[in-house]
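> call design_seq(struct)
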């Protein structure tokens, strides 16, 4: 069953069909919200609020874009609104849940992979929220530039420029991180 059929099921009163959307998209929704909000509790609140908005506004979804783009746009906007309403700074928490899983080769490889994963997460947390979000959407979630533009509301050219700058920023921060912890090479 495709997503359009599932949307129609929910709209026709079968609310249990909405569970599919929550289970399929909650991890990425959390990642987007966490990158924008900066902490776990606010990200969880934003995700919950976003899914309520999606459910209540499902009738407005048009098949002009992918369902995921529409949903992620709602999550992004809700997170921005939530963040703007806060007047205090957030403590950064490291979220490794959506960073590449460690392979099962050998213990040494696992340790090295774990350290690299942690290094990537630490570097992303030191970057601006916007840059970290773009890199997460592009590299960790494999979204094309066009999808990222829909999610963030930026035009494709702007996404490309910001991705380029984010890559440069990431390279600089990662190089500094490697100097501090040289065993990552």
């Amino acid at each position: 069953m495709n997503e359009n059929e599932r949307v129609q099921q929910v709209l026709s009163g079968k609310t249990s069909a909405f569970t599919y959307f929550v289970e399929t998209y909650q991890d990425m929704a959390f990642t987007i919200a966490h990158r924008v909000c900066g902490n776990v509790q606010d990200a969880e609140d934003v995700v919950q609020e976003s899914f309520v908005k999606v459910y209540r506004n499902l009738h407005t979804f048009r098949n002009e874009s992918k369902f995921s783009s529409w949903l992620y746009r709602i999550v992004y906007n809700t997170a921005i609104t939530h963040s703007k309403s806060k007047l205090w700074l957030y403590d950064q928490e490291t979220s490794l849940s959506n960073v590449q899983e460690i392979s099962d080769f050998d213990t040494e490889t696992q340790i090295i992979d774990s350290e690299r994963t942690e290094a990537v997460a630490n570097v992303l947390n030191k970057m601006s929220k916007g840059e970290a979000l773009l890199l997460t959407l592009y590299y960790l979630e494999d979204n094309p530039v066009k999808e990222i533009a829909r999610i963030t509301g930026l035009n494709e050219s702007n996404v490309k420029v910001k991705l380029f700058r984010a890559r440069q920023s990431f390279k600089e921060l990662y190089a500094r991180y490697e100097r501090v912890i040289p065993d990552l090479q």
